[in-house]
Amino acid sequence: MAALFTGKVLIANREQDEVETERELGRALDNKVLLLYFGSGQCPRCRQFSPLLKDFFLRLTDEFYVERASQLVLVYVSRDETEEEQSAFLRTMPKRWLAVPFGDVFKRELELRFAVSEVPAVVVLKPNGEVIVGNAVEEIRRMGPACFRNWQEAAELVDRNFLLAEDFDDWTRRSITDPIRRLKYKLDKKTEAKNKEKEEEGEKSS
């Protein structure tokens, strides 16, 4: 997914930090479903939809609602008329949102690439950049966070939270059940060692 933003700059919401290097973008976007939210803080339809999208995002990513955040990232592509309007809108939205900087011509490229003609629009993308849903506004309105599971399956995300830390570097070369098998092997070894200790203690006492 970082390939879509190669050579581009994204802004971390409510901060001055820029997410621009390939490594930073990879860490922010890799193995996640990406939402591109085309909207404006002044558009009446967006003012109705944005609070729904905010709640949708928080329910999937905020620790108040979930134990661990879903594999989801959102990039705001604004049609705000001024940088102040964009900043004011983003201040009301989740901190984890990213945004294309105001005035960046890349916003127009994204609109053309994904055929966005009106706002609000939410384009849902796989990690490789393929489109899952061209505009998910109605789906989010109708289903809420439940629709994320469909996107997750379509994106074929790898849930790395189930991998052991030692397997992170080469998880692609192994079966998803391999770490579980090896964890079981370690537990069996520990049990075997404890049983052996007990037997030896029994022999000494007799």
Tell me the radius of gyration.
Answer: 23 Å
- How many discrete domains? 2
CATH class of the largest domain: Alpha Beta
Coarse structural class: alpha/beta
| CATH fold type of the largest domain | Glutaredoxin
CATH architecture of the largest domain: 3-Layer(aba) Sandwich
Biggest β-sheet strands, sense, barrel = 7 strands, mixed
Low-confidence stretches: 163-186
Order of helices and strands: EEHEHEHEHEEHHH
Strands of the widest sheet, in order across it, are 2-1-5-4-3-6-7
Number of H/I helices: 7
Q: First CA to last CA: what distance?
A: 67 Å
InterPro entries: RdCVF, Thioredoxin-like_fold, Thioredoxin-like_sf, Thioredoxin_domain
Domain Thioredoxin: 1-142
Protein name: NXNL1 protein
Pfam families: Thioredoxin_8
Task: Give the tags.
RdCVF, alpha/beta, NXNL1 protein, 206 residues, Glutaredoxin, 7 strands, 42% helix, seven-stranded mixed β-sheet
Explain what the structure shows.
The protein has 206 residues and is an alpha/beta fold. It folds into two domains: 2-155, 3-Layer(aba) Sandwich (Glutaredoxin); 173-205. Helices cover 42% and strands 14% of the residues. It has seven helices and seven strands; from the N terminus they run ββαβαβαβαββααα. Strands 2-1-5-4-3-6-7 form a seven-stranded mixed beta sheet, with helices on both faces. The radius of gyration is 23 Å and the shape is elongated.
